[in-house]
Amino acid sequence: MEGLAGKMAVVTGTSRGIGRAIACLFAKSGAAVAGCSRDGRDGSFLDDLGPEERRRCAHSVCDVRNESDVQRFRDEVQARLGTPDIVLNNAGIVARASVAELSLKTWNDVLAVNLTGTFLVTQAFLPAMKGKGGGRVINIASIAGRAGTAMLSAYCASKHGVVGLTRALAEELRGDGIAVNAICPGSVDTDMLQQGMPGGTPKMATGEVARVALFLAGLAPQALTGACIDVFG
To answer: pTM for this one?
Structure first.
């Protein structure tokens, strides 16, 4: 599979779940991939690649909530792999609690990772992407960015925010040749599903979401921007 041959992609949250599946598929499709996760305890997508694929990829520790961490990650990526053609924001967390019992700290943490992290990573790489003359930004939102779910108020608010950011940024960057789209998955077989919806039954595997990301990264027309692709299973 060589659909992204010669391209460079940044993918956040690549230690597990959807982000790991996307980073692996991008690498196996020919891209150089710079992945990151908050810590290295769960390993990374590099563990799932062959030697040749691994040589053109990299993994860093980065807390997307932290502006200085994101800027350091950007500098590392650009020094090693150059300017990305694709930035895919996937890093996310979930918290399950009623609004009456949800702490402000937890509320702030969920929005900081899911929404502010998407903003910070995109903002960090945008100047170089504009200088390169174009690219693709892909944000992983959620079915929770389309509808409300009881006990997931912070998560829903953050993912609605990602959808809004995607649409606004698409309009802002139309003249720069940068397409901005979001993917809104339903229940995917991940640890996060069990954290947010204990006992929930997944309707799809992480690889199915990764294939949608691959389409947006390499096959979708440049005119496709500001879209939120629903993958509800």
So the answer is: 0.95
